[in-house]
């Protein structure tokens, strides 16, 4: 994939999310969208942090269950507790491929990772599993003959229903070895559907449409995978750690999480 230019005048979902997490790799146009989202959902920072926390728990869970390779699709701009940091802390032999379509995310991830042979950063579109998984850099790090966790955190809600989504999901499912995992976090209406609709409207106007899904629609993303316990739940309820922010915060229920095993 040819690297698209970084456009400082057009918001990007990667940089907006970075702004929501309090990062500095964003432009005024991204901060403006993030500010509007905060007006609609004041707890959005807590939601984003809860999303990162469940990503960490999923990675540790995968390693504990013998899966030590990760393909992190829509990985975003590096932030505190990146997938490779969590995975390598759990198992120094872990391998992580980051994949993002946004050149800012790829630029900063490459800067952070340097030339650690256990990690790679690929510029790619997750809707093209054939191209993503054939990337020579990814193949140098990830052995698809071994169980691999496919991570899609806070990204599938940018892909509308249809043949492209179906083909992407089946492409990853068919490419991975038995014992592999699919882990997804996703925006949902949850406790406050009106707020999520307003955020979706905002994203639609930025050129990155947001498609929140309900539990039934979310569960359908796991067709062909066996959902592991506790099944489809709101993010904070997926194997919570005692240190996480309290699950009583209703705003953090705007995210669904599931992990499937092949
Ligand atoms: C909200 S961020 C989530 C980052 C990280 N996965 C997390 O949960 O903390 C969404 C990321 O998905 C990326 N993205 C959106 N559409 C994509 C696509 N079709 N292929 C690859 N990445 C995509 C965006 O560039 C952005 O970095």
UniProtKB/TrEMBL annotation:
Pfam families linked to this entry: Methyltransf_19 (PF04672)
Organism: Actinoplanes awajinensis subsp. mycoplanecinus
Cited Gene3D superfamilies: Vaccinia Virus protein VP39 (3.40.50.150)
Protein name in UniProt: S-adenosyl methyltransferase
InterPro entries: SAM-dependent_MTases_sf (IPR029063), SAM_dep_MeTrfase_SAV2177_type (IPR006764)
